[in-house]
Design a protein that fits this description.
The protein contains nine helices and eight strands. The protein has about 220 residues and is α/β, with parallel strands linked by helices. The protein has a five-stranded parallel beta sheet with strand order 2-6-1-7-8, with helices on both faces.
Length: about 220
């Protein structure tokens, strides 16, 4: 069984997908972590992040491993655990270059499908999971929230990790990321026609989880 949860940054998809996976005893695939891992490796290599061929060399020249559990996706690069390092704000700013690369997206989608093939049940989150990576998923959800709430959530997440970022700056970054995600030719951020849309702006985490589980159990 494949369950996809897509949505823009700050919509709550990562937290919700992780908890839904735990409730169902399914694997949790954080596809954003995969893009972040390649971004981190590219930044460290010093290549031009706008050069797709150079980015492809970075991906081919490093060993990326993603261990899936029901609570998180552990990321290692060349044998080193980088699960925390990929959450650095600079990685967040630069991940758009990896996300907009057709070559890298194709490789990462192939990797996502391969990982899912090892599991009986998987909850996968991202921006194109229900439209590209797993277009034939058993259940598809698309989470949305207003800009102010998305920025507030992101700020709280960063603060929890010891990083203070101005709320208005976060809003600007989110708007820019949305524009980049929606405009790219390959795997753009768009709600699948057969996905269930949930506005999480005024819902708490448990309410969103119950909506999703209710749809799954009621099918």
């Amino acid at each position: 069984m494949v369950i996809t949860i897509d949505g823009p940054a700050g919509s709550g998809k990562s937290t919700i997908a992780q908890l839904v996976a735990e409730r169902l005893g399914a694997g949790f695939l954080d596809t954003g972590a995969m893009y972040r891992a390649v971004t981190l490796a590219a930044m460290r290599s010093g290549v031009d992040l706008t050069n797709e061929d150079e980015l492809a060399k970075v991906m081919d020249g490093n060993e990326f491993r993603f261990a899936i559990t029901d609570s998180h996706t552990q990321v290692t690069i060349n044998g080193v655990d980088e699960t925390e390092a990929i959450r650095d704000p600079e990685v967040t700013v630069n991940v758009k270059y990896i996300a907009s690369s057709p070559k890298l997206r194709a490789k990462l989608v192939e990797m996502q499908r391969s990982l899912a093939g090892y599991l009986e049940k998987i909850v996968t989150e991202g921006r194109d999971q229900g439209t590209v990576a797993f277009a034939d998923a058993d259940f598809k959800f698309f989470l949305v929230a207003d800009l102010a709430e998305r920025a507030r959530r992101r700020q709280a997440q960063l603060k929890e990790n010891g990083t203070e970022v101005d709320l208005e700056k976060l809003k600007e970054q989110i708007v820019q990321r949305d524009a980049s995600d929606e405009a790219r030719e390959i795997g753009p951020l768009v709600c699948a026609e057969d996905a269930i849309t949930i506005d999480t702006t005024e819902l708490n985490i448990e309410q969103v989880i119950e909506k999703i589980l209710g749809c799954i159990r009621g099918s």
